[in-house]
Amino acid sequence: MRPNALKLKINRKQPVFGLFVSIPHPVIVEMIGHAEYDFVIIDCEHASTNMESVEELIRAAELMGVTPLVRVSGVNRSEILKVLDCGAQGIVIPHVERREQVEEVVRWAYYHPLGSRSLNSGRPGTFAKYSLTEYIREANEAVMVVPMIENVEGIRQCEDILAHPQIGFVLEGAADLSQSLGLPWQTGHPEVRRELERLHAAAERLGVPYAAVARSREEMRMWAERGVRIYVLGDDRNTAFRAYMQKRNDYRDMGDWT
């Protein structure tokens, strides 16, 4: 079982950067690794990623020294079990509104005494090459549970949610939060910012690392000044699209087309 490098960096309060992966091809993860990101969140909520692709994406992340997390489609025992058996080192839970969602994921993501994860060989177990008791202990050390708080109810319940001892870090979801506030996609609106500040303050009080989705340099600077060290910089699709568009525009603007 590989140690969770992301968890170690977070514990050392190092700045870490990740991307959502929605394009289900290992080359994408390889490029992200070569760009020296610390972690990826393989998306099974919005993307059409099947379990075979999840395994290949995780394998690519391991080869690149990038910590693989998976955003599952929901709190589902079978899906959680399969992505962990593929080698995921963290479960990102979308749309968390109550503590019970975290408790259920913990039940399926951890072995005894923390949970009731079913034991099988899987990739991380290296087919019983090592002691099973050693593997179980190391697996429980390596796995992270990451709730996404992305609506008004989640913010309202955030103190209770974040009090769970197995939370690795909390990830904000400003886009869906803005919609639940009746301000769709206005992620910079003062009301949205106020709710995010409320979430951040709760995380600070409870000693839970906070992860921001930095949408601009200004946002990055603001969160850095508040001590935030975990950043998700969008996803692979919008990152690639913006780079393609910027390059095309830069070259187009160099010509005299009149």
What is the makeup of the main sheet?
A: 8 strands, parallel, barrel
- How much of the polypeptide forms β-strand, as a percent range? 15-25%
Arithmetic mean pLDDT: 95
- Please state the overall shape, judged from the principal axes of the Cα atoms: globular
How far apart, in Å, are the first and last alpha carbons?
Answer: 62 Å
List the strand order in the largest sheet: 1-2-3-4-5-6-7-8
Residue share in helix: 40-55%
The helix-and-strand class reads: alpha/beta
Low-confidence stretches: none
**What is the rounded Rg?**
19 Å
Helical stretch tally: 12
Q: What kind of oligomer do you see?
A: single chain
| SSE order, one letter for each helix or strand | HEHEHEHEHHEHHEHHEHEH
Describe, in plain words, how this protein is organized in 3D.
The longest helix is centred in the C-terminal third of the chain and has 17 residues, at 190-206. It is built from twelve helices and eight strands. Helix 4 (77-85) crosses helix 5 (99-109). It is of the alpha/beta class and 258 residues long. Helix content is 47%, strand content 15%. Strands 1-2-3-4-5-6-7-8 form an eight-stranded parallel beta barrel, surrounded by seven helices. It is globular and about 70 Å long.
Short descriptors:
single chain; alpha/beta; 12 helices; 8 strands; 47% helix; 15% strand; globular
